[in-house]
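Bench log. Compound arrived from synthesis this morning; before running ITC I wanted a structural hypothesis for how glycinamide ribonucleotide sits in the protein. Inputs:
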Amino acid sequence: MTHRLVIVASGNGSLAQAIFDATELDVDIVAVISDRADALVLSRAQKAGIPTQVIPMGDSRQIWNGQMISAVEQYSADLVVSAGFMRILPAEFVQRFPTINSHPALLPDFPGAHAVRDALAAGVSITGTTVHWVDAGVDTGPIITQMEVPVLPNDDEATLHERIKKVERGLIVATIALILPTLEHNA
Ligand code: GAR
């Protein structure tokens, strides 16, 4: 039976695009939700015929938390995939909906919003990408899969991030395929 997937993303959406294009996944991508009206991921979704919703963060985090929860509830999502979503999801959200996140570093090293920059600053020769379950912390949930990516001598943040993202696109799709059989159906 096909699982219902909601993707949350804030930016370019190349990871989301890899999921849209993954014909091997038995999923129905029921919505792409973004906190940013100008996110390129929204037009990528529209081109793929996927409904989109924008839920901007206003003055009240409480209100935003509630809006995120009711949006995903309305889509009866079996799985939420955070693919470049740059907001912390509320604890109640991640307790309610199984949620995974793709992170551009080998967690538990370099959590947070500047993982690639932080890995470069630390001078590591190997970094990578992690897909993990999202819990109430920042990039602290149980790790599902990881892949290493080398740091090259002349890397800057952009070149290293692009090398990581090439690997991330494959890993997020493979990880979704891996966990689908363990998920319940909501609709
Ligand atoms: C990815 O590298 C993802 O891991 C990262 O944003 C990028 C999104 O790329 N997410 C985070 O840093 C979350 N803390 P995309 O917009 O091209 O899909």
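What the model suggests: Residues 157-179 form the longest helix (23 residues). The chain has one domain: 3-182.
ITC booked for Thursday regardless.
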